[in-house]
Task: structure prediction
Amino acid sequence: MEQIGIIGAGTMGRGIAQVASTAGHKVILFDLHESVIQDAQQSHTKILDRLIEKGRIDENEKNRILGNIEYTANFNLLSDSEIVIEAIVENLDIKHKVFKQLESQVSESCIIASNTSSLSITSLAASLDNPGRFIGIHFFNPAPLMKLVEIIPAIQTSIGVTDKATNLIQSWNKTTVQAKDTPGFIVNKVARPFYSEAIRIYEEGIADFSTIDDAMKSMAGFRMGPFQLMDFIGHDVNYTVTETVWEAFYYDPRYKPSFTQKRLKEAGFLGRKSGRGFYDYNQENPVPPPSEDENLKKYIANRIIMMLINEAADTLHSRIASKEDIDLAMTKGVNYPNGLLAWADEIGIQVCVESIDALYNDYHEDRYRCSPVLRMMAKQDQKFF
Result:
């Protein structure tokens, strides 16, 4: 494919544009707002200048990458694109309007894709006269650095479109996984307990933020604790994804949002970008010392890991993705220290079942129901891999 169109020059759009232009494509980066376009161009220049300083590229490579990108507020320039990837606000009505306008501009063979992280690909495809050309292509932030891309065909998507999109993204030196069109796809669905169970542990008074964060880093090997990560992502984003997944799964209690995070969002305490979230970054030392109770931290890490494993297993049980793609998604998409299903094998499937059942016996909440696939495998003494 020669020309790639990108709609939306915000963080994700400009990141995808950089990836495509680096791979040698002509890129049309469109945004309605001139200020956003200018900001994207300045951002690309700064990023590439830093890469020059680090010795990763030279001046000629910088000029080649920038020369491949045309920054524009003229929607008509997208017309000759062979694929157009939308990366705008997560609003179904707005996206529908954009896709209808786009379909009238591009050729019949042009693939139309969305980078949405939470909306139904099937619903988005339905806005087109030819929904078979539509597909979800979900990058992770920052797009130039994160290797994983989720490929999500809609019910209507033709097999040829899925194959073309997958081959294209892989040619950009990305790792692809394929997910069924279900809320959160793979990563945003499976990762929910990392956040929600950590908040639950805090709300029960079992441990404070810093102790829970330390437990997941020192005991489980995660690069960031859940509260640090939520502050980094931003509570406007993280809470909205949780709420969207919860509603989309017909209010399944496994995905229920917390008032603790909702109140932070309402207060405008969005995390690092606002200076305050779970931690107050206006303080000289925003993260207080964690507890030194090793048994407490083992309990915390085990509880969150068990909930993550259970969610991964249920994702496999629902045939949302293959076991290989589930583990690949979590290691490449959110840098988990281990694939969750492989982790279950190491711990022991029977141990996982007993741990999850123990939580259910304590709470008698459907939130802690054990995935049928785990229970079946424990009975048959099987492993995932």
